[in-house]
Amino acid sequence: MKLHLYNTLTRSKELFTPQNPPAVKLYTCGPTVYNYMHIGNLRTYIFEDILKRGLSYLGYEVKHIMNITDVGHLTLENEDSGEDKMEKGSRREGKTVWEVAEFYTQAFTRDMEALNIIRADEWTKATDYIAEQIKLVRTLEQKGFTYRISDGIYFDTGKDPHYGKMARLDKAGLEAGARVEINPEKRNITDFALWKFSTPNEKRQMEWPSPWGAGFPGWHIECSAMAMAKLGDTLDIHCGGVDHIPVHHTNEIAQSENATGKPFSRWWMHGEFLNIITDKGAEEKMSKSKDNFLTLELLKNKGFEPLAYRFMTLGAHYRSKMQFSWTSLEASQTAYKKLKHALSGIDSIGNIEALKSNEYHQKFLSAIEDDLNMPQVLALVWDTLKSDLSKPDQKALILEWDKVMGLGLDQKQEKTEVPQEIMDLAAKRAEARANKNWKQSDSLRDQILAKGYKIEDMGKGYRIEKV
Ligand code: AMP
Ligand code: ZN
To answer: Is 4-271's fold the same as 274-405's?
Structure first.
């Protein structure tokens, strides 16, 4: 079997054939840096990392661009209205937009590193590509796809007979079902802003001169302009979360394909949501606008390892919804630690080259090639540990597969820095045990636990772990 990837364009798994193998041009929509990422956003970035690692493992040479949106993403993004999220962040924090962008870009970088996500070849900032965005709008204007209304330059979706093909949008239905027209100056409900004008009564921190007057780019044009500037007119794969299918990616396709006359991306791949259960028991998408979001920092503060969260996300296929719960995160952390423990207990490692024809390795390849089936890979890991392969061979295989899983399994177990106070209590407990003073030894164990450490007795010795 060869690599098959699900393509949202055709709603089917297709044999993957990049334009110029082994090169693969990959573009993934990145964060808007006005707030922390939530673990739902991070689930999408982990899926994209698995895709990239899978491609590299199978011998492709991936060039990956991800954008950093630092201007133009409006709070009412589907209606081209509301406030710029960056300016909103700036007011909330009493910092300049540039400071806000810098702060949250750094937070994003830390999350990506903690989750073992391989950096894109470049993280392109929208504010560094204003000239390219203006040029693209100019091209669309020259080709007759734009019109001007009081608040900006808009794309006329009525001029594009293919508009909404990937999302399979029912344009007539959308028009008929439209509530109050949000902007009565728009020709079609699906039209969207390419360039927004600064309003005279609002002093924006970020604005640029343009052939149409001072203003700022629309959110969708950023991705088209940066993707094409860095990777050329046609990408091999473009990714994002499923929420991007009906609007953001639909608009990226309309702008790019009408500007160049070429397909914008051959594959479109979308990660499903991480959902959360509300107090009333309903399931809803984790979202920044709903304030129901959890950050990686919060997970860390509660004692979870970021890679345990990565491990958890691999338990569901990227095209399936995943429900977050603390219980399942706890179970994932336990399983993740068990796996690391099992591997660190094996002293030597088998020869991976000799194992490549082994049926377990073949099963691994089949799972990856079948649209990145990571739940199957995880099941295979446990099967391998239970198999009659020698321990060193088991370790060699699992560490090899970790090139795709990215769980940091080859890292040495980091030594916990145990404070002196805890070591003293542990020594006292060992003494109590030696004297068979079980009451005292139990009470000391509880004291140690209350301070956040756990004692594991091992033969004559013991090990102290942070809980
Ligand atoms: P945003 O900053 O809202 O543009 O989101 C960044 C990325 O995360 C996009 O690719 C979104 O589609 C994706 N995303 C947003 N919410 C979720 C969620 N609850 N679960 C998974 N991915 C999400
Ligand atoms: Zn995008």
So the answer is: no
The model's confidence at residue 290, banded by pLDDT at 50, 70 and 90, is confident
Determine whether the shortest distance from the Cβ of 240 to ligand 1 is under 6 A: yes
Compute the distance from residue 40 Cα to the ligand 1 centre, in Å: 6
pLDDT value at residue 417: 65
CB 44 within 8 A of CB 38: no
41 CB within 6 A, ligand 1: yes
Q: At a CB cut-off of 8 Å and minimum separation 6, what does 95 contact?
A: 103
Task: Tell me the two tokens of residue 299.
Answer: 């997970």
Domain spans of the chain, in order of start:
4-271, 274-405, 420-466
Q: Per-residue pLDDT for 461 more than 70?
A: no
Kindly report the protein residue whose alpha carbon is nearest to atom 4 of ligand 1: 31
Q: What is the mean pLDDT of residues 106-133?
A: 96
Orientation angle between helical segments 438-450 and 420-434, nearest 10 degrees = 160
Question: Is the distance from the beta carbon of residue 241 to the nearest atom of ligand 1 less than 6 Å?
Answer: yes
Q: Which atom of ligand 1 is nearest to the CA of 239?
A: 10
Q: How deeply is 446 buried, as exposed, middle or buried, from its count of CB atoms within 10 A (0-12, 13-18, 19+)?
A: exposed
What percentage of the chain exceeds 90 in pLDDT? 74
Q: Cβ(306) to ligand 1 under 6 A? A: no
Atom of ligand 1 nearest to the CA of 244: 12
Q: Which atom of ligand 1 is nearest to the CA of 43?
A: 21
Cβ of 273 less than 6 Å from ligand 1: yes
Q: Could you tell me the pTM of the whole model?
A: 0.87
Confidence at residue 202, expressed as pLDDT on a 0 to 100 scale = 74
Q: Tell me, which fold does domain 274-405 have in CATH? A: Four Helix Bundle (Hemerythrin (Met), subunit A) (1.20.120)
Q: How far apart are CA 155 and CA 188, in angstroms?
A: 10
Task: Identify which of 196, 192, 221, 193 has the alpha carbon closest to the alpha carbon of residue 206.
Answer: 196
Give the position, in ligand 1's atom list, of the atom nearest the Cα of 37. 2
Share the mean pLDDT of the chain: 92
Distance (angstroms) between ligand 1 centre and the Cα of 21 equals 30
Q: Whose Cα sits closest to atom 1 in ligand 1?
A: 31
> Each residue of 121-179: pLDDT tens digit?
999 999 999 999 999 999 999 999 999 999 999 999 999 999 999 999 887 777 766 65
Per DSSP, the chain holds a count of helices (H) and strands (E) of 16, 18
Q: Minimum-distance ligand to the CA of 104?
A: 1
pLDDT at 226 (0 to 100): 97
Give CATH for domain 4-271.
3.40.50.620
Cβ–ligand 1 distance for 153 under 6 Å, the answer no
Q: Which residues, other chains included, contact 271 with Cβ-Cβ below 8 Å and sequence gap of 6+?
A: 43, 44, 47, 48, 239, 240, 241, 242, 318, 319
| Cis amide prior to 184 (ω within 30 degrees) | no
